[in-house]
Structures are given as structure tokens and as C-alpha cells.
Backbone:
């Protein structure tokens, strides 16, 4: 039995945990271990340690799991809500864009008519069209921004976080 | 035999597809079922990886929130466990970077010096999570042995022998080449064997 035999045996003993050994390798290892007390002892030690390692009872605390489930549910709901709002915003923007494009010629005509009627100078129809065309969108954006800011400040406060179940301890 | 294997494979694929769909829809029922099913495995992995119970608990919650957030990224062609543990690992690294940047840097240094016998994790003031988890003499011995094993080897051992992941899956979760994953398991086994003997 040579030194490299022992090394090879150790190598195979560790390999056993990572892949299925071939018949030849398994036979050689079994024969070696049968005749080599130090290698057999080392393998037994490894098996012991590994068995102990695998059987250590580590479990997640039930309260932690419950709190996590609550947080997950709330977070999923919130993401759903955000997703729905974003979709709604996208659809509204698209509809508004199409309506804007369709109504622009009428707005232009109306602005020109008003400017002619009131004897207003030349750039007035253009300015009037721009104002009339962008005003609803600008107002909607300002309202949305104000609403989001107030909602964010409400939800960011520690009391609100506790109320929402985010701070579970 | 082949038919049974095929049947098991189809069932597994169906289950993965159901999980993927549930994650995409952020279905609370699916999410709760997943938490219920994987709670101990995720927590155990995090505890072994971080060696800090408080950090593991925070990371546990954060992991599931990230699953909710990025569930759509799960590809049902791959095992859900591997994906979940990858998420947990990323969250743990983020948290460790935030809380204990020095410890993480040392862990990374150990990773770089893979072939050398790296030092164990730096001692912390808190009691070891394994000490807290230890309910009997055997568990205390395991705790003592594991305390001397560097994080990446400990992680490889956990993934291989607790989570029963293949070497390929370990490589995917830890984002290292297959050969590195294999050498980590080998080195972890060597250290565990040696330290287990020393705790007698």
C-alpha cells in the first residue's frame, strides 16, 4: 500500500458525496478501507461529522414566518395597485394623446375665430391653441403629483408603516 | 420505470409552470404556499451563510419581498429552489454589505484565496446562531465545528448536504464555475471532518 493509495482513497471518499462512483472505483475503495485502519477511521469521522451537520435542527421561527406572510401579502397588494395605476395612467395618456391629436385642428380653428372676432394680434391664435391644448393635461399632471406626494408622506411615516404591518417587531 | 420517471418529470414541469404563473401574477395564495414550503430551508441557508440570527431573520423577510417584486424573472425551466436560494444569497450579500462591510470584505478575500486554508469568519460580539439553535450536545459540537469553517465553504456544504442541490445548481446559485463549486464542497468536507474531530 503506497502513500498515493491513501490519498486516492481520501479523494474517492470525498468524491462519493459529489457523484456516483463507478463499480471499479467503489470496489477499490471498499478493498482499501477493509485493509487500512487510518483511512477507515478518517472516513468514519467524516461520515459522523456530516451526519451530525445534516441533522442539526434549524427552523424558522413561526412568528417570523407569519410576519413575513403578512408583509408579502401587503407588498403584493401594493405592487398590484401600483401596476394597475400605471396601466391606467398609460391608457389614459394614450387616449388623451389621440384625442389631443384629433381635436387640434378644431382648437386651432376656434382660437383663430376668437382672435379674429376680438381683433387680437397675430401670435394670439397660436398661444391660445397651445394653452387650450396643454391646460387639461398640465392640470391633471399637477393633481396627480400632489396626490402622490401626499400619499407618499402618509405611508412613509413610522406610524403608518406600523399600521400597514411593515414593522412587525 | 421510464414511464414513472417521465410522469414525475411532467409533474415537476407543471408545478414549476404553476409557480412561475403565480409569481408573475403575484398570487398571494401561491406566495403563501411557497413561504410555507420553503421557510425552513431558506432560513437555514441564511443562518448558515450569515452566522447572525438577527441578520438571517431580516434577510428572510427581505428575500420573500424580493421574490414578490422579481417573481416574473423566474424561469420555470430551472429548479425553483435554486432560483430562490440565489435570491436569498443576493439579499444576504446586500444586507451584509450594508451592515458589516468589513466582514463581507474578509469573506470575499477568503473566496479569492480559495485553495489556501482561509481563516474562519471574524468573531462577532453576538452569540453564534448555532449556539442559539443548539438544543443538544451534538448540535453544540456542530456549531463549534461550523464556526471554524469560512462562509463560502459553509455555504457550499449547506447547499449540498442540507438542500441537496447538485454541484451544477450550487455553481449557479453561488455564481462560480463548476470546478470552484466542487472544490468548495471538497474543502468544506475536509474542514468539517478535521474540526468535527477537534470538538470531541
Residues:
Amino acid at each position: 500500500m503506497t502513500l498515493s493509495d491513501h490519498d486516492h482513497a481520501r479523494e474517492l471518499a470525498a468524491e462519493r458525496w459529489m457523484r456516483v462512483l463507478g463499480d471499479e472505483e467503489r470496489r477499490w475503495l471498499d478493498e482499501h478501507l477493509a485493509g487500512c485502519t487510518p483511512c477507515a477511521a478518517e472516513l468514519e469521522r467524516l461520515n459522523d461529522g456530516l451526519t451530525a451537520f445534516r441533522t442539526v435542527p434549524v427552523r424558522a421561527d413561526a412568528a417570523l414566518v407569519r410576519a413575513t406572510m403578512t408583509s408579502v401579502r401587503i407588498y403584493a397588494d401594493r405592487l398590484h395597485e401600483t401596476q394597475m395605476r400605471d396601466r391606467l395612467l398609460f391608457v389614459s395618456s394614450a387616449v388623451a394623446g389621440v384625442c389631443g391629436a384629433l381635436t387640434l385642428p378644431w382648437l386651432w380653428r376656434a382660437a383663430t375665430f376668437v382672435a379674429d372676432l376680438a381683433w387680437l394680434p397675430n401670435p394670439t391664435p397660436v398661444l391660445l391653441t397651445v394653452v387650450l391644448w396643454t391646460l387639461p393635461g398640465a392640470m391633471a399632471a399637477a393633481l396627480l403629483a400632489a396626490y402622490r406626494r401626499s400619499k407618499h408622506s402618509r405611508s412613509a411615516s413610522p406610524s403608518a408603516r406600523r399600521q400597514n404591518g411593515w414593522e412587525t417587531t | 420505470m421510464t414511464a414513472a420517471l417521465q410522469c414525475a418529470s411532467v409533474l415537476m414541469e407543471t408545478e414549476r409552470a404553476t409557480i412561475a404563473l403565480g409569481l408573475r401574477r403575484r398570487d398571494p395564495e401561491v406566495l403563501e404556499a411557497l413561504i410555507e414550503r420553503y421557510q425552513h430551508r431558506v432560513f437555514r441557508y441564511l443562518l448558515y451563510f450569515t452566522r447572525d440570527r438577527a441578520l438571517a431573520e431580516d434577510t428572510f423577510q427581505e428575500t420573500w419581498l424580493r421574490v414578490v417584486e422579481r417573481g416574473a424573472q423566474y424561469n420555470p425551466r430551472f429548479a425553483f429552489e435554486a432560483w430562490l436560494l440565489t435570491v436569498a444569497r443576493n439579499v444576504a450579500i446586500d444586507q451584509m454589505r450594508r451592515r458589516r462591510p468589513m466582514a463581507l470584505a474578509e469573506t470575499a478575500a477568503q473566496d479569492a484565496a480559495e485553495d489556501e486554508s482561509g481563516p474562519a469568519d471574524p468573531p462577532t460580539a453576538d452569540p453564534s446562531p448555532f449556539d442559539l439553535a443548539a438544543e443538544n450536545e451534538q448540535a453544540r459540537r456542530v456549531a463549534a465545528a461550523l464556526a471554524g469553517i469560512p462562509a463560502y465553504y459553509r455555504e457550499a456544504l449547506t447547499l449540498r448536504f442540507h438542500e441537496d442541490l447538485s454541484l451544477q445548481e450550487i455553481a449557479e446559485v453561488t455564481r462560480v464555475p463548476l470546478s470552484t463549486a466542487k472544490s468548495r464542497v471538497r474543502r468544506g468536507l475536509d474542514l468539517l471532518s478535521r474540526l468535527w474531530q477537534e470538538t470531541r
